[in-house]
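Inverse folding, one chain.
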């Protein structure tokens, strides 16, 4: 176990594979807040999927776009239930198969098909450009939908002369319990998490919808103090569109996303030397001379304020602004006392009589 992320708090908005992502982050020492922004729901009414399947059987597609692993597997499983799995597999076998990413590729192979091309960027835009260049005029394209309709891609293929059959295997729905998502929004707005991870563009959109009247506050946090970690460029699009800087690996993998966060978060830390001790501030902890000291939110808020102006005296009134609403000057004194105990280095924070507190910088 490594502690690259010890002291940091990271929100996870994924539903699919959330436990896997959380475990990867926790192995690096992070504190994880699980808050699925969406859940994948199989179609309650299979009418549209069955109709799309019938269409593919009657006129086998020339091109199959496999967007997701769960979608391709789900389609064949549904066909199995209708007794149509083998006819469907036979209808799809001659098609030019485009798999958008390794998970889709794995699913394509698992159901007995063979992929012909995959985009390097794993983006839908690159898929459409490739097919238009290759030529789709007069061809039938089966487009396995990525949780929702993708009109911009369908329209581009139709404009190039294709007949597009949309295959709706699953849809996105709000989380069964929205409370964890709203809690995460509160934490982001209050800068009480260090990073939020996104593994799908719809999840990012869902977080902003759920934020409601706090959207601007959340956007400001993500544009500054809170790192937005995205599994790939497609996932990042809704954030980039809103002016949020994102960190994303070159290849869309959960492990690569975690490595990106491991590289980025420690660079955002603040380090000071005070009373002979080296302090590095992490999300909810301070590293004192190499030793991690976990702190409660109020002492941590006071330490951040003092470290932002090392050596400068901050009044109790100034420090009070860093604490939750309703706190008084006595709460500041208590936070400072708890900070000294938590750091196990009481001389780091100096009391300046009748003026306030400062870090005793060297």
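Residues assigned per position:
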């Amino acid at each position: 176990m490594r502690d690259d992320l010890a002291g940091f708090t990271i929100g996870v908005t994924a539903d699919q594979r959330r436990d896997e992502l959380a475990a990867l982050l926790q192995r690096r020492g992070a504190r994880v807040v699980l808050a699925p922004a969406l859940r994948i729901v199989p179609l309650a009414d299979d009418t549209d999927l069955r109709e799309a399947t019938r269409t593919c059987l009657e006129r086998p597609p020339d091109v199959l776009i496999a967007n997701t692993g769960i979608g391709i597997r789900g389609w064949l499983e549904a066909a199995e239930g209708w007794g149509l799995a083998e006819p469907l597999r036979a209808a799809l076998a001659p098609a030019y198969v485009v798999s958008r990413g390794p998970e889709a590729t794995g699913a394509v192979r698992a159901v007995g098909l063979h992929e012909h091309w995959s985009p390097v960027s794993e983006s839908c835009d690159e898929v459409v450009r490739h097919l238009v260049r290759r030529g789709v005029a007069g061809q039938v394209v089966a487009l396995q939908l990525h949780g929702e309709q993708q009109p911009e891609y369908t329209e581009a293929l139709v404009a190039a002369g294709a007949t597009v059959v949309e295959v709706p295997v699953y849809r996105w729905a709000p989380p069964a319990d929205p409370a964890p998502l709203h809690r995460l929004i509160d934490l982001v707005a209050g800068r009480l998490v260090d990073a939020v991870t996104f593994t799908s563009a719809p999840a990012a959109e869902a977080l902003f919808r759920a934020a409601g009247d706090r959207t601007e506050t959340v956007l400001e946090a993500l544009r500054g103090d809170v790192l937005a970690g995205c599994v790939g460029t497609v996932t990042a699009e809704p954030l980039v569109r809103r002016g949020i800087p994102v960190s994303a690996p070159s290849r869309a993998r959960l492990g690569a996303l975690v490595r990106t966060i491991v590289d980025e978060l420690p660079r955002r830390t603040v380090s000071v030397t005070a009373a002979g001790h080296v302090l590095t501030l992490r999300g909810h902890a301070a590293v004192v001379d190499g030793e991690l000291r976990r702190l409660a939110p109020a002492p941590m808020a006071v330490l951040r304020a003092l470290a932002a102006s090392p050596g400068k005296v901050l009044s109790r009134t100034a420090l009070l602004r860093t604490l939750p609403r309703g706190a008084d000057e006595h709460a500041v004194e208590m936070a400072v006392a708890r900070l000294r105990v938590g750091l196990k280095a009481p001389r780091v924070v100096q009391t300046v009589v009748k003026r306030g507190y400062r870090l005793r910088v060297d």
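The mean pLDDT is 91. The longest helix spans residues 329-343.
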